[in-house]
Every structure is written in structure tokens, then in C-alpha cells.
Amino acid sequence: MPSQRSAANLDALRRGLGAPQRTFADALWAFYRDHNRWVPARIVHRHFGVTVAQTRLAELGPNLVRVEREDGKSHYRLTFLGVLLTDHGVEAETLLVRYLEYVRDRYRSDPRVEWVGSQEVETALRLPAEQSRLMRQLVRLSHWWGGGSAFREREWTVGVPVDVDELAAEADVRRYLREHALRHFPVEAHRAATQAPDGEPSGGAFSFIEDAPLRERLAADWHEAQDVFHVLGWKSCVILCGGILETLLSRALAGGGPTAVRGRPLLATLVAAATRRRLVKKDSLRLPQAVLAFRALTQPGRLSGAVAPGRADADAALEAVRSCLRQLAAIRPEAARPTGH
Question: Which residues pair with 54 in a beta bridge?
């Protein structure tokens, strides 16, 4: 039964998190709850030490904790699934379930509802100030809203979730929440993050990219692609993933040789060239037409008669990036160079 599987999977993840990893995640979440922002890397490094912080980052993986740059500074942040695995995860889950049940019931009674505000939620759920503040943080982090948002210091207003029709038909909201979290943040094998010379995290899954600014840009685009998928932004997800794939494959092929590509080739050409060079396995990057033609999505005039990307396209795009990252990260530097020259 799906509800039993999703419950068992999340509970197993909670049990499987070791004490050192949980302590690390708890500290990140405690800082966010206290300061309403993610903790700067320098504070994490001072508290845990750079080596320990880098180790925990690699152990937990990018679907639980990430390092992102904002205003030129690095911050450690938990994903929504990462929050659910902390010592306060059950509390967070229960509170968010209550919120989603409220939105579901409001929509059932009035399908015209478009906005939900903090004051009505506080009143309906009888939330004390501390829980109301936590609710605000959870709604914002989980992306369970659509059509716009306004998060102030205390009050907030958000559009109803983009998948509100699915939510309205859901009897078991806890199961719905858990499946949602596990689907959008799959805990999978990942390449351990390495450490840059200045002690800053090097880019996680993109750590094999030597160009630091490019590595950070790719990591930011990858995180954004997953975030927009979370709110059903299929087109944006496909465009971001297409750009990431194009950049990764172009750089992998940049060594020249008989199968090198010139100019700015189509994504299909890059995939074929990378396959011939054995940089990626044959048929490992199965891309639907919407992904192969991702550039056209940025130019509405070129989309006459084309079908807009859907969930299957965005799913395929995300999986292609994951596969590409795994395969390119596993290549020894010399293996990527053409032979015979």
C-alpha cells in the first residue's frame, strides 16, 4: 500500500540518520528557526570545523543539505526533506499536515479560493505565536504554495498550492506530504563533496568542474530546477536542465578530437558525440523532444503547434542531469581527453 511504503521510507530514513549527522542537521535547523535565515558557512566551520562540516555535507548528500551562495557568501541549508529528518522533523511534519488539511478543506468548500493568509490559519488552527512562526517557515521552505507569496516578519499570504486539485481529492494528507517529499528529494548515491583551497564547499555534485564561478552557477541552476519542479514548473525545469546538460557535455567534449563539436550544437548532437567518446553510456541519456529542443522554449515565437512540456518531460530532464553528473564525475581527467593526438 503506498501510504505504508511512504511512511516506512521516511521513518527508516529518520532511524538511519546517525547521531553525528543528526546533530549537524539539527544545528542548521535551529539556526534557521532562531534567525529566519540559513547559517553562513563561516559560522558552521567555526562551530564544527571545516573538515567535519565537509564530511557531514558528503554523508548527508545534496537532497538533505546543500551549500548555496547568496550575495557572494556561502550558506548551509537543509532541504525540506532534510528538515523532516531532524529531531524536530515530526513536529514540523505534523504542523504542515494541519496546514494542508486546512487548505484542502477550504478548497473543498469554496473552489474559488486563491489565497491563504496567516491570520486565518492561526485562528482556524488555534496556533500560538511560536507555532505560527514555525508554520510560516515551513510553508516557505516546502514550496506548498502557488500564484505568488508575501512573507513578512510575522504575517504571510500565499496562493493555494499549484496541485490543489490533487490535494482536494486526498484523504490521507500525511501520506500525500511524505510521498511528495520523497519524490522530490530522492536519497540516492552521490559523489562526496570535495574541499576547495579556501575551505569553502566546492559545489557538491559539480565538484569535478574546475571553474569555480561556473561550478557555483551550475549548482544554483540545478537547485532551482529541482525547486521549480516542486511547484510544477515543468517548462522552467526543462529549460534549466537543458542548459545544465548542454554545458556539462560541451565541456566534457572540449578536448577536441574526431568527435569534437564546434560552435553551439544542438543538445542531441552533444549527447551523440559524448556517447561516441564513451563519456556517457549508450542510451543512458534518454531525452524527450521537449528537452532536446529546450532552447526553443525560451522563444515563444518558435513554439507554434508544439506541446508545452509536462511532468514526464521534467522528470526525464532531472533524471538525465543526475545520470550525466554520475557518469562525468566518475571519469578520470585523462580519460576525457581524445587519443591519438
Answer: none
